[in-house]
Amino acid sequence: LQTDIYYYPVEVELKLIQLVKDGDIHLLEDLLQEIYEENFKNRNLSQAMKKQLVFAMRGTIIRGLRNIVPNDNINKMIHELATAVSMEDIFYYASEISLEICRIVAAKRDEDGEMLKRDIFKYIEKSYSDSSFCIHNIADRFNCSENAIYQYFRENIGTPFSTVLENKRIEKACELMRDTDMQIKDVALSVGYNNDITFRRAFKRVMGVLPLEYKKTFETM
C-alpha cells in the first residue's frame, strides 16, 4: 500500500456517481467518509497529492454530476468550491455538492413515486367495476411488466394488487347497500363481480359478515 498516493480509484468514482444518481444519501455519506478517512487520516499525503485528489473529485462533479439536476444552488456551490483554499475545505465543498445533488435526486424520486401511486389508485377507482380488470391492465396502462407492478405494490403499497382491488370493490358495495335499495346480485355486478356467489365470499372475507347481514343492519336503523 502506497500511503503517499491518494485513494480515489475509478471504481470508487463510478460508485459515487451511481449513488448520487440513485439518490442513496446514506450510502453516499458512508462512501464520502471512507474517502476522507482514507486520504486525510490513514495516508500521509503531501499538499500536492491532496490537491490532485480534490481536483479529481472536482472533475467528477463537473463531468459526472453537475448535469444530473441543473440547479442554481448547485452552481453557486461549485463556484464556492472553485474559490476554496484549503484542501479540507475543497473536499468539504465537493462532498456537499455531491450530497446536495443526491438529495435533489431523492426528493424527485419520492415525488415521482407519490405521483405514480396517486395515478395508479385513480386508475383503480375508475376501473374497479370492470369484472375483467386485473394487474395486466395496470401494467399495460403504465407501460411496465406485470412483475414490476407486483413488486411495486409489495414494496411501496404493502398490500398485493388483488387485495387492493378487492377492498375497493367491497368498499363501493358497502356504499351501495347503505345508500340504495339495490339487490345483492345487482350490487355484485355493479362493483365488478360476475356472480353474487363470488361476491358473497369476498364480502365475508373483507367485512366478516355476509352482504345480507350487513344490509340488514341499515334496514333496521
Tell me the layout of helices and strands.
Elements: H1 10-22, H2 25-40, H3 47-65, H4 72-83, H5 87-127, H6 135-141, H7 146-157, H8 161-179, H9 184-190, H10 196-207, H11 211-219
Helix pairs in contact: 1-2, 1-3, 1-5, 2-5, 3-5, 4-5, 6-7
What does this structure look like?
This protein is mainly alpha-helical and 221 residues long. It is built from 11 helices and no strands. Helix 1 (10-22) crosses helix 3 (47-65). The longest helix has 41 residues, at 87-127.
- Cα distance, first to last residue? 83 Å
Radius of gyration: 28 Å
Mean pLDDT: 88
Largest sheet: none
Report low-confidence residues grouped into runs of 5 or more: none
Total DSSP E strands = 0
How many helices? The count is 11
Helix amount = over 70%
Please provide the ordered H/E string of secondary-structure elements.
HHHHHHHHHHH
Structural class: mainly alpha
In short:
The chain is mainly α and 221 residues long. It has helices at 10-22, 25-40, 47-65, 72-83, 87-127, 135-141, 146-157, 161-179, 184-190, 196-207, 211-219. α2 packs antiparallel against α5 (87-127) and α4 (72-83) runs antiparallel to α5.
Question: What attributes does this structure have?
Answer:
single chain, 221 residues, mainly alpha, 11 helices, rod-shaped
